[in-house]
Amino acid sequence: MKKIDAHLHLVNTISGFNGNGRLNMLGNGDAIWDDGTLIHLLPDDYGQTDFTAEAVIRLMDQEGIEKAVVLQGSLNGYQNYYTWQSIKKYPDRFIGAFSVDIFAKNYLEIVRRHVEDLGFRALKLEISEGGGLHGYHGTTPFKLDRDSRVSQILAFISDYPGFVLTVDYGNYDQISYQPEAMAHLAKRYPHLNFVVCHLSFPHVAHLERLRAALEQWQGITNLYSDISAIQDIDGETVYPFEKSQAVVRLAKEIIGADHLLWGTDAPWSATFNSYHHLATWLEQTDIFTEQELADVFYHNAQKVYFNQEAVTSIAEAEDPVMKNRA
């Protein structure tokens, strides 16, 4: 079956940051935060200090995965330019999103450069308290559907067909959690597509909480969710992931298979469960019909991220800064 990994990260030079400070690679896939917290960021044999496009392609080829959507996150640090370089080098394998810190003075100029000059048609905002903007700008909480900076960004990207806003807002107990804001934005901007990461952080012990979030999105045609890393949320390591099956069944019931995108959140999620298991677990279930599974694995991501506008805009882009430098 054809597959697109709709949530994956490239790591060229680690530059992670969150409430623990900056992240520094130690080698052997290990890293340390400024506060002394140690993590194993890269699975064995992925790379000592990076997870390059070439390493990802080898991994995808082993699992028969055709393409991947490269997203950004504070854990690895924004890999915006390396993502663009990788898409240009391997246009048949990658599409991607850039990220911006909306608290930066020149945030709109950063957005403009990535959209107008580099041709991106997807923006990822990781606003979670655990690892995103609310983690290192925690004294100034904001709501996506009320913040003037977000409004300015959405007004700007509204001019560009095929644009996607992807959001990771963290767990229910974080101030950043805001499923209702995603529903409001999707209704306010019907010509844009919106993707929520990690199925709104589901916990199998609290399915009614998940239902309450997902029912706000029911019937909103331009609002999707990826189901990457949901195993990690419940600490699940037994294949084929019964807890994850339960939350995905509920998601299918409420928002439908045509609004779910499979992904892995590699490389970090592949330190808890193998990439092979993350790539194949859905095929070991009876959640979806064959056609629905094809949608979740491939067609939905193809429509949302690999739309013609996105593919063409990056293919035609030439970075004016690097051109002038040359």
Structure overview:
Keywords: Lyase. By secondary structure, the protein is of the alpha/beta class. The chain has a single domain (4-13, 49-316), classed as TIM Barrel, CATH 3.20.20.140. Helices cover 37% and strands 15% of the residues. The protein is built from 13 helices and twelve strands. A five-stranded parallel β-sheet has the order 8-9-10-11-12. A four-stranded antiparallel β-sheet has the order 2-3-4-5. A three-stranded parallel β-sheet has the order 1-6-7. Strand 9 (164-168), helix 6 and strand 10 form a beta-alpha-beta unit. The mean pLDDT is 96.
Task: Give the helices and strands, then pairings.
Layout: E1 4-8, E2 17-18, E3 21-27, E4 30-33, E5 38-40, H1 53-63, E6 67-70, H2 80-89, E7 94-96, H3 107-117, E8 122-126, H4 133-136, H5 148-157, E9 164-168, H6 179-188, E10 193-196, H7 207-215, E11 223-226, H8 230-233, H9 242-255, E12 260-261, H10 275-280, H11 290-304, H12 308-316, H13 320-325
Parallel strand pairs: 1-6, 6-7, 8-9, 9-10, 10-11, 11-12
Antiparallel strand pairs: 2-3, 3-4, 4-5
Helix pairs in contact: 3-5, 7-9
Pfam family, one: Amidohydro_2
GO molecular function: carboxy-lyase activity; hydrolase activity
InterPro entries: ACMSD, Amidohydro-rel, Metal_Hydrolase
- What is the name of the CATH superfamily? Metal-dependent hydrolases
Q: Quick one: overall form?
A: globular
Strand order of the largest sheet: 8-9-10-11-12
CATH architecture: Alpha-Beta Barrel
CATH class: Alpha Beta
The count of β-strands is 12
Gap from first CA to last CA? 43 Å
Write the H/E string, N to C.
EEEEEHEHEHEHHEHEHEHHEHHHH
- Range of strand content: 5-15%
Organism: Vagococcus allomyrinae
Domain Amidohydrolase-related: 4-305
Protein name: Amidohydrolase
GO molecular function: carboxy-lyase activity; hydrolase activity
